[in-house]
Amino acid sequence: MQNWDPFPIDPASIEAGHILGTASIDLHLLEHDQHLVFREYLGRSNHPLPAPIGDADVVVVESTCGDENHPEYDASEIMASAINEAASRGGVVVIPAFAVDRTEVVLWHLKQLFADGRVLALPVFVDSPMALRALEVYAVSTVEQSTHADQDDLVEWIGTASQKPVAVYVNHGETPGPAGLVDALAARSGILAVMPQQGERVMIEPRVGPS
Asked: Do 62 and 42 touch, CB atoms closer than 8 A?
């Protein structure tokens, strides 16, 4: 616990399932036993991460993809098909990827495909010093997924709160992302969702009675 005058606060982090090291921040306001959860860069719900919210009276969440849903696809199957087709022609597969997280996720998929015998164990070269340095960190950590959570993922994640939040403040998204998520939360979860304005201040009142 840390006493941040004038409020005693007990902060904690929650796995986010985005790039390595990202986390939600849970600020436990001890005076009224309130939890404020801040979440930027949430990952997809079809991965082991992110962790459930738990206790949350107020949530501040990103909305990068708040107005859309990603198409469903099997990344491993797409990779296997492309690699096997190229290999059958004696060709080379070039996979462009960001150095941090994306390259590591591609290598993880390749390792699984090789282990399952779905593709030939071909030589793999990573032509990026930065990616190789990042790989050293990922080698001792859980592989996380970098794709932003879509509208369904965000609504589902907020639904993991142990009780319905009093309010959800939607930020970090360009139009129409925030508005789409606000409407979805109201329609599908009955949650008060708000797009705060720059410089706006909000009073967090103690929760009264059951949700």
From this structure: yes
